[in-house]
# Entry
Amino acid sequence: MPLTGIAIFKLLPKTNCGDCGVPTCLAFAMNLAAGKAELSRCPYVSEEAKAQLLEASAPPIRLVTIGIGNRVLKVGGETVMFRHEKRFENPPGFALLIKDNMDEAEVDARLERFKQLQYERVGLILRPELIAVKDESGDAAKFAALVNKVKQNSDGGIILMSLNPDILAAGVKVCADRKPLIYAATKDNLDRVAILAKENSCPVAVRASSLEELAELTTRLTNAGVNDLVIDSGARTVRQAFEDEVIIRRAALTKKFRPLGFPTIVFPSEMTDDPMKEAVIASMFVVKYAGIIVLSDFQGESLFPLLVERLNIYTDPQRPLAITTGIYEIGGPNENSPVLITSNFALTYFIVSGEIESSKVPSYLLVMDTEGLSVMTAWAAGKFVADAIGPFVKKSGIMDKAKHHKLIIPGYVAAESSGLADELPGWEIQIGPREGAHLPAYLKEWKP
# Structure
């Protein structure tokens, strides 16, 4: 049974130091009990207490790591059923399926698509994370050769797919250093796959024919010391898979049922032969509640919408989407180019930068930290005002780039122009348009 908040509090040092991020030990204990904090946040808890608090401090859905380095994928660690309650923590990974009975040209084409299909949006690079290598031939040497090719020609995480432990072992031998996900342990091969996972410190996917069987298998594996699990209920119809996802999530979060407290893997690739229908099914599982989504192939027209959907769903609803502050050079500006300033709200930046690009007038765009608020909201909150803008401009480095001292501010904050003149002696504060759509005409008339 998970410990209550009061029971956890009794085991804490009761220093109320605040080093954990909350002001009191009681508040921290309540967060631990609710699965909203990690025990490691407390630097003073004793080793004896740690052992007793391990169950309470673990998130209801275990955090599992696949891959290494910059391309590591973390799935699970979720604490809520619905995004508005707090936020979803770790976005699902998209996996491209490659089978060992495909011809070499098709394998090469898929690996190339995996590399090339990536997109920049709101300052982030959106791209898939995983390649699922599936055994269809029954030939361990052929499977291992394909795994090696995938490893050498991509930096993504790897899923090794076979129900034959010998074939899985051949694949693991090739790429154990990349920490692949081993798929799958079943009731027939569980003991051998468990040994393989423990020897190589790799996560394991567990596949069953029902949720009851799934809970039994995960219990056996955790008792054997294999804890990094991803679960597959075995459902291959849209309705049953959807129901299983919801039941698994609810059992883990509201019932604290540990045998189902793991991230899931789903296979839209096995639910339809229609590529566009497959994308629609995948979009459903982005929301409800997959940890890994395996697709039969990647195409830009279907992958891009899925990546954007994932970004939107897994953006913290309590924090505006912001971009990095600094100087953005648009169109190759020089020392005589216009200098504009705006907030770091992502939508504002992309509207303003897009209009500057369309004007064909090379410009410097200063993006100031307004905690992700739009120009008007930041101004009303006192975050985009003269005494904040002035110091930012001075520290930005724009004085080393622009020969003139003319700063264009958004029309919505025209009231700050006189204050800015005091903050920036020697600068001419120019009031730009209120709307981004009017920037191209304004910039074409601008003179240094």
